[in-house]
Amino acid sequence: MVRYFTISVLLILLFSITESDAQQFDWARSYNISNSNEVAALTGDENNNAYIAGVYGASQSLPYTGDCYLLKANAAGAALWTRTFTGQVQIGDLVYSGGALWIVGQSNGIFTYDGVSYGLPAYHMFIMKTDTAGSLLWITTDGTRNGAGANLVAGQAGLVAVNLKGVSNIGNYIQLLDEDGSILKSKEIVGNSTNITDLALHNERVYLNGAFNGSDSLVVDEIVIHAPAIEHAAFVLALDSDFVAEWAAVDTTINNRDGRIEAGDAGVYAYFSVLEPPFNIVNVVKRYTAEGQMIREAEIPFFTTAVTLYPDMVLAPGMLGIFANNDFGHDNHEVILFDESLNLVDELSVAGLSDLYSGQICTSSDGFMIAHVHSGDLDFNNEFTLTYTGSGKRPYIGRLSVSEPTGIAVTLNTEKGIELYPNPAHSRIFFEIPDSFAAPVRLTISDVSGRMVQSSDLVAGVNDLNVSNLPTGVYVGSLHTPDHTVVVKKLIIK
User: Domains in the chain and their CATH numbers?
Assistant: First the structure.
């Protein structure tokens, strides 16, 4: 007869940050730009002013190309001014740096900004800088680069890093620019089957999130990224202060076109859609040290892992925010918040007719701002409704205030009543969840390095889990409960 026993709860992180008193939407505003195709980019300044840009009035075929808008809203969401581009233009990205705005994009010919003509008569990339009133400071153009899918990231002392494509999307070019737009450093990532999707800049290092689906290997300096036996490689590539490849971390993906990356004092955070055996698509965030050691992997709790979610991600002090579509249609988005250790903090919904594409998130002084388009009323996490008026899609901005999870007390508690047996285990374990839990409990099992090795949704009652695939060792099971506490249990596999 097998003897079962219960292991005590080791830790419950009492966040005391529920949807009603810690993470909450302060306001949302819609703007009178009718038939707006997208919010292609969002950024904010130190005064909590928000800036958005995108295409409006174009056909619904991708990529959106046509007339564009640049709009500034104050800390309360009121529109202060709108500037316009006229032509066949695409907005790649927008960032606030050194007291000014930087915009990267692509044009199919001469275009006007605020009524003045700029650009080249042929297909070309442009980078422009304006003051915070939208007045142009300078513009540079390049007919050998593509800025449609470009990324910008702000650095120290007004520096900006940019990720550009070559003509016909062949080649990847990483550049560090000074405040006048002069190129200080440049790196070409060679490979027709390589796609750099995002970049981060911290302490003079540049971190890239990309994909490679070549038949051989991707070689960058002395770093070699091998193609997986099945499907494609998703990778993080780090460049040192001299733009020399320093390290790479690789996983397997079907399509990493929406990979995201952020870097700060707490480490490097990379979003991937990875392929796990036998053929499961899992959306994860991985945390690395600046030197490339993976600290932890966390699965993102979307409703399904079978869809491309078009996410945006940003790192704030003590917290990581993700904003993404969260259903098969166009009527539900999620703001998902992790602390810097990749513990799930909260999920907040934005429900209503919007669009699969173009959701954006950035930081504000004590939280986040999100932006997207909508064509119907939006319910912001059951806190308030943003009413839709006008024609076609209209852009909106919402502000989310949060309580920083850093420094929250950790308390021992054994009153949750969640039981685990047997422990040690061999091939099967049982989690017994009390009937008081009305919603599923999310279980993730991680090894001692923090790498997630298994996950499951547990319901009230006895849950039977097969762990025969786990090697002998010590593991940590994290149970994310409906009341936003996290129960952590040690599991021994023998």
Answer: 24-189+300-401 (2.115.10), 409-493 (2.60.40.3080)
